Every structure is written in structure tokens, then in C-alpha cells.
Amino acid sequence: MTKILKADPDAIARAAALLLEGKLVAFGTETVYGLGALATSNTAVAHIFAAKNRPRFNPLISHFASSQAAFAHVEPTDLAYRLAEKFWPGPLTMILPRKSGSTICDLATAGLPTIAVRVPRGKTALALLEAVGEPVAAPSANPSGRVSPSDAFHVLRNMHGRVDAILDSGPCSVGLESTVIDLSREVPFLLRPGGITLEQLETICGTIRNPDDYATKLPSSPGMLASHYAPGLMVRLNAETVDQNEALLAFGATLPGAGLVYNLSESGDLEEAAARLFAGLRFLDGEGQRRGLQTIAAMPVPRHGLGLAILDRLRRAASPRPVAGGDDDLESMIG
Ligand code: AMP
Ligand code: MG
User: Fold this and answer.
1) Long-range contacts: 66-73, Cβ < 8 Å, 24+?
2) Which of 18, 19, 152, 213 has the greatest number of beta carbons closer than 10 A?
């Protein structure tokens, strides 16, 4: 059952407790209503993808109560400090290199070496993040492909039964998604236009490359290709048998004969499998290479619900190197 909680101090404390238990809480920010989960828990973040019915694990924005809290998880540049000073709290998301030791989970970053961080401006959002004391991953609180919600009733209408609570702080003031700027390259890149305009950013950043540059100049740049974690071992899909030279990414009842096995979910649960996917790929890749194995053989997973997102991720991992599919990545990064 989805509870609507009017945003008062008690409700904020309850919502924070739910998040810390790994539950989903939709909450208002100045941009749109976010579908929040504890960003440090793969299991909690898997609920987001299940609730949104997202066909793909794209990286999520982690939200913090302060710049200091955000910068504890990434390597801020001078420019990042200046942007934070000027636009945080506010509708600006910065992509920065992950700090070693950051506890943000793989599923929240889609296995990338960078993290998207933001300090939202909404009073309720800030109070909630403060009460949680941990990063909160939150895409917009709508089913995949539908319009982003700008008040609690939009969320209720579309996500009823799929989220544990909605913290109602009234309509969003900006109503537009946050601007996403990538600061992990030599020059800043605008990945998504949003609440902070290009002109506003340029007062601080000077030149910014925009998405057109991605489309026209960088379709096959290594940076884009590396945008999703690719294992070093080759990946073989839909394995129905496996041999000693292979590391098996199992789902459900495992296959005999593999050199190494990681089971995404023995009981065949897709949400559990999603939560364990990136950890599983990393484990099989690292340990498999150490043991001189050749391939990661992935067992079939059902083609529905989160199975589609898992298959999408595995297909990318299995495609010939350097990985093609820049267009898709482009779309998810700009979209
Ligand atoms: P949403 O969560 O739907 O508001 O979208 C978040 C946006 O940020 C998407 O366009 C993501 O692709 C992008 N994003 C999040 N994290 C990263 C990252 N580490 N690198 C590049 N883009 C990111
Ligand atoms: Mg969205």
C-alpha cells in the first residue's frame, strides 16, 4: 500500500526511516518528484528499476543534503566547487569521478567510474536527505516512458502500489529536470539541458560542449564507449551448457561444469538478480581472469520486467569490442 504523507517533521522522519530500511519513497524536489531509494544499497536501488519498469539500467542521480556530503563521494574539481557555490542547492547535477571508498552502489552508477551528484533546493527534500544522512538515488517518480510528475497526485496516479510512501510537499517549483553537466572530462559537457540554463552555466564555466557535439563529433569517442562497465572477458549469452574454461553467470538452477559460478538468483527472482548483476560481472571478470578463464557464459533470463534491463546490460557486455551501441548510450545520457 502506498501511503501519502503530508510533509511535516514526523512524516519526514518516517520517510527517512523507510529509506534507511531499503524502501522506496517518492519525494518532491524543486525539479520533479523523485523516486528515492538508499543509494548505497543495490537491493534498494533494484526496487527503483522494478517500480519504474525501466528496460535499461541507466545511471541514477545521487542526492545529498549538502555539497560537503556530495563531495565526500566524488573527486571535485575547482570548477565543481565554483558551480556548487553558485547553483547548489538547486537543479544542477554534476558528473564527477567516483572517490575510492565511496559507498554508492554499482546499480546506482550502472557500474561507471563516475557518479552523478546533486543537492536539491526543495526544503522538504533537504530535510529528508538530512534525516537520512546517506545518499538517496532518485530518478523521476513515473513509470518508464511517461511524463515526470510535478505533484504528489501525479505520483499516486501512476505509481500507486509500487512505492512505499509519497512525501507530499506540494507542487514542484521548477517542474523541469535538473541540468546534467559532465565534469569528468577535460572540458565540461552538457549532458541534459534542464533547470539551470546553458547561459547561466557559461558565466562560471566558460565554454561548454553541448549534446550536438556528442551527436556530430563524438559518436565513437572512447569516452562514450567506455560509458558502461565492460568486463575484460568475452561474454556469451543464452548459455545452455558451459565448460571448465568459462565463468558462469547463473540464473535459477545452475548448470554443471563451469570453472567458476556466480548465481544472480537461485530462486529465479529478477529483482534479486538485478541487485546482484554488476557485482556478479565484476566478480566473474576479476576472478575469472585470475584463473585464466576465457569467457563469461550468461544463462538466459526471462524477457519481461527487470529481465529486459538485465538482458540489455548483458548484450552490451557481449557486443564486439570496442563496444558499439553509442547511439543508445547517447540517448540515455542525453535523455
Ligand atoms: P534521471 O535519473 O531520469 O533524472 O536521469 C539522470 C540523468 O543523468 C540521465 O540522463 C543519466 O544518463 C545521467 N547520468 C547519471 N549518472 C551518470 C554518469 N555517471 N555518467 C553520465 N551520465 C549520468
Ligand atoms: Mg525521468
Assistant:
1) 66/119, 67/119, 69/119, 69/129, 69/135, 70/117, 70/118, 70/119, 70/135, 71/117, 72/99, 72/102, 73/98, 73/99, 73/102, 73/103, 73/104, 73/115, 73/117, 73/135
2) 19
